[in-house]
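Two quick folds needed for the group meeting slides. Do the first one here.
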Amino acid sequence: MKHPALKASCVASFFLTALLTCLFPSCKTIRPDAGELPVTAFVDPFIGTDFHGHTFPGACLPFGMVQLSPDTRTMGWDGCSGYHASDSTILGFSHTHLSGTGIGDYGDVLFLPYSGEAQLEPGEEDRPDSGYRSRFDKTSETAKPGFYAVHLTDDDIAVELTATQRAGFHRYVFGKAGRSGVLVDLVHTIHGGGQPLHEIVVINDREIQGLKYSSGWARNQYVYFTAQFSKPFEISIFQNDSLVAQGPPSPDPKIPGTQTPGTETPDSETPGALVRGTRLKALLEFDTEPGEVLLVKVGLSATGYDGSRNNLASEIPGWDFEAVKMQAQRTWENQLNRV
């Protein structure tokens, strides 16, 4: 977050693809208003996700602060972007990534929808049932500039992702009836590093805020977030996988663990339960019917909670996923047409 040049990483592979295409004699200007395919139709975000390419296929905008993408691994040289095409399970969908780098970092604020019994640990790649990671259908993966989709087969959940400059938009379609939820894992980090400090603030039964501080390769990263849900939830917050807070918001904050030095305190005018410490995770649970849709909006800021909420309010004021997706594709179209 302290290195603005890194924000350009998600745009690099897209521009490279377009540039190489236009070096060939058969290349011509693509004009959507002339009834021809848009430039974005020729971009494949999966390029570079195999071998040692170190790219990610998720949703982002040119020079955007948010890179909302699936994570399939967090360690090893081929895990620098959090995703590798050879993997068969998805850990979840985090909001910051590096693309094309030779070292990993970020993977901040992981969200994973689930159905049935929740698990708190990611488990092992060769034993997916040992944790919350999910197998996924490779043929269901779709990636376009500003958009990503996949089907999580273990719990029968369709996931779609899009993004604005400073916010991510999730759309989950649950295939099963019964108890379902969303895991929010602040421990999850690509390549790890440093001593993390976390906060989770329950604003009401549709909104939470949080902070993930880490000191990996990019050093001293403060990622504040505001997440809003289209459906009321019941929340349980865990520290070191032990339950420390549960139920509806409380006017008396519960603050176990280590204080976070030099960080903003949540808005005192907003009632809610606050948990501050290390290794925090949360389960936000509700009942679902087959085919039920859940929308989740997540705004980020490097400066504070107010910034994350303002970014979300200004960039995704409503709940129209398709409108945000189309705007992301128009933004990419305009940018790529400069090539």
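Then this one, please, same format:
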Amino acid sequence: MASGASRINVREILLFLAVAFGPCWLLAGAFRLTGLAWGSLPSQMLGVVYMFGPLLAVVVVQKWVRQEPVFEPMGVTFEFNRWWLVAWLAPVAAVMATLGVSLFLPGVRFSPEMAGVFERIQRLVPPERLEQMKAGMRLLPVHPFWFLLGAGLAAGPTSNALVGFGEEVGWRGFLQRELAPLGFWRSSFLIGAMWGIWHAPLVLQGHNYPQHPALGAGMMTVWCMLMSPLFAFVRLKAKSVIPAAIMHGTINAVAGLAFGAVEGGNDLMVGLSGLSGFIVLAVANLLLLAARPGRAEAG
């Protein structure tokens, strides 16, 4: 991907980060002061609004500072190619692989009853409501795993991708373009580090790591650094940021299956954002080396 610039504009990148981080961190801090639990409906609403912080930053830099178009330079195009399908289905492969790796960890076993789902939400709902949810799951015409997978695949490229676009137009649109002179790997890992740190106020309140929020903030940053090259590669090959938004939306929709179908372990060990997921993503990055992603960037 051509960056359209021979050097990195540090001032405008810092402005982008200030706008992407500032309002989001203020919102997260205000939510913390309410004393509401993470996982409640208000926290879910906050999470949706939070994801549009990078988009706001792109608008500020592109429209108000550069006085240039907002979307076209960010790679917002809709020319379909096979990488759109890769973006949609790759998260499912990652979830399945993560689930398999988790079963090799000590004290972790497969749970046909989807015990992992209820372990994560039991602190958020009354016991009677939890039992109602379990009973409802047993009444489904197919196994809950396949039902949730189907629902995730439907939400991933639609409603979830719309929300994911709020992030991806910033991370894989603006920043990937601006940091392209650093090369694929260095820019990807740097963007991943920023992406992970941006999540910190949410993680510290229980997002993704409800059992270990402090350690989870560091884990989330490592996870984003491992995920970032995969997103960047899809964005480059597709020549559009839209598949990155689809990939982001689908991961958010199906990631819960990687811990939902197991029993035992904890949020640092199982799931796509736990140790088992790190192993899968590390292997995926090693495989990506063979694809020489820099060639896609040059093209």
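Slide caption for protein two: The mean pLDDT is 91.
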